[in-house]
Specification:
84 residues, mainly alpha, 2 domains, elongated, binds zinc ion
Length: 84
C-alpha cells in the first residue's frame, strides 16, 4: 500500500544517524542539558571566587560560600535533614 510506504519514510526521517538517541528531539535535549549544566557550574565557581553568595548576590561570610542570610537558611536545612 502506498500509504504504508509513506508512513515508513516519515518514520525514518525522524530518526538520526546517532544510535545513542532514539530521535533528534532527545538528542537536542541531551546536548543542551549538558551545556546548561556547565554554564550553571561555571557561574557557581565565578561567584565563589569573587566572594559572592551563590544564592543571592551579597558578599559572603569569610570561609563559606553563602551570605549571612543564606548561611542561616543552610543551617536550618541541614538540621531538618538530620532529623529525618
Ligand atoms: Zn545569599
Amino acid at each position: 500500500m502506498v500509504f504504508e510506504k509513506l508512513l515508513q519514510k516519515l518514520k525514518k526521517g525522524i530518526g538520526t544517524d546517532d544510535p545513542q538517541y532514539p530521535n533528534r528531539f532527545l538528542r537536542f535535549y541531551h546536548h543542551n542539558q549538558g551545556r546548561l549544566l556547565k554554564e550553571r557550574k561555571s557561574l557557581y565557581h565565578q561567584k565563589k571566587e569573587k566572594g559572592i553568595c551563590v544564592r543571592c548576590n551579597k558578599p559572603v561570610i569569610e570561609g563559606i560560600i553563602f551570605c549571612e542570610y543564606h548561611q542561616q537558611k543552610q543551617v536550618g536545612y541541614n538540621k531538618e535533614a538530620r532529623e529525618k
